[in-house]
């Protein structure tokens, strides 16, 4: 059945809001007229004036509903001995704040967190008359993720704008459905499976070889691009047994180079490579579009009035994934749900039938093969592998991109890390699990980067019921959050708070995860560091990520002894906007030190890529 475009659909849904108030007035007027012979509208008024009065009932009813909700929340907070979080004063319905949030989503990383410095670690940003309780307080984030887990969910708010991309997969699921997803995928992330060092090693060597070839031809490389390909190829093989071979396709040249050749001349782009690259690009565009929907809340269809931007990209994504799935499904009955709603319904039926058995993953089995034991529905399978594939690609590539970005500015740290690699692993050997465990500085470099540049900088839940957050400081009152409220929490802002991490919180210094600062700040308060989230929904791929990134860095530092930014190769959009240097526009001092433009969609990245040159290490 054809569906309406997003804008008309939203307007169609809003018809009752517009029609009911004037209709009620018309009915009431007739009734009162009949019963008491009194006209509710001034008899002397013209038809136009009467029509205007009828129309005015629409904003009047909307205003009464808003005030009623505000009063009800205030009364319920009082009844619970609590107060409402402070509200950021805004212009009509928070339109000024919305403008700022949209600009932030376009131009910078979560700058909106600045507000929490001015107003405290919990603040109500009322956007379009809707509460959004922004949190950067570890105790409250702990409540959301762990101690009051059942009072929070991903919720319809997030599904409203993310389902087009993430469908019925694990990221957006709640309740029994989420438990089902988690039980289905967890066996796949057992320790021995995520320790496939040979696989990480193989892809690291391919990536490093590609980097060397390009550097030897005199050009810099876009490290972010290469590492995203590395993460896609490695996680593709690990999860789906499919090597997308994006690393083999020609690397991009810097914008200032003469583009005489489309590839390195090593391997010509064939149809499969092209599809892989188109898939990767469609994923990026879909994420950017998804991010832009975030601040708009339920009003996003007004900005994609005639055409759903994400569904457009999903065509390319589906075209790439479906043949892989069809191959895996083979002769089985692989029908597909029509859309996400039907897929969710099918999943719910499976949950009701309790089909999850704690199944052991067999030797050599891929995630798709494992999932096929639960369902052959192609839409469900596609959503699941897209969710986990995205998690596997963009987070680890974000982490490694920011590690290299930091190493370009901290040659001492690079020398120290390299010395550790050479001492523990040697100049040529492949790293083992034990060696990686031994490398304390490596783990500190990764953690310090995850602290300052968490790949998932911002997250969100909705309350399933009214929530009371106990006071953090003595003498404070608890905070009350009504049911069905969006609660965004900014991990990045928490990770950068000087009161939690010390006065040097904004400096990248891996020693902080080794010296006395570790015992002073993190050990007594572990919830101040949450790059992988926490509680029942903690990241399933945490160990996978540490292993994959460590193996890559070992190989990288065996191959190269130095790395530097090539600013001439950086495209114009990658330069930080001029306003980042203005202390008034950057009161927290987050952006002044940036040499490149840091942005985020679902994950953190560098706008325009990270163009670098490396010195090849002398053969030892
Ligand atoms: C540096 C790398 C990574 C970081 C920083 C990271 C971070 C996170 C975070 C913050 C969440 C919570 C999301 C939420 O609550 O909405 C999460 C969930 C998840 N991550 Fe990761 N992740 C990383 C790598 C990976 C990898 C490599 C995989 C798989 C191959 C993976 C699979 C998942 C899955 C399946 C979930 C959903 C868990 C659930 O909802 O129950 N992650 N990750």
Automatic annotation (TrEMBL):
Its cofactor is heme. It comes from the Eukaryota. Pfam families: p450 (PF00067). The keyword Heme applies. InterPro entries: Cyt_P450, Cyt_P450_CS, Cyt_P450_E_CYP52_fungi, Cyt_P450_E_grp-I, Cyt_P450_sf. Keywords: Heme, Iron, Membrane, Metal-binding, Monooxygenase, Oxidoreductase, Transmembrane, Transmembrane helix. The chain crosses the membrane at residues 12-32, 52-70. Belongs to the cytochrome P450 family. PANTHER family: P450, PUTATIVE (EUROFUNG)-RELATED. This is Cytochrome P450 monooxygenase pc-3. The lineage of its organism: Eukaryota, Fungi, Dikarya, Basidiomycota, Agaricomycotina.
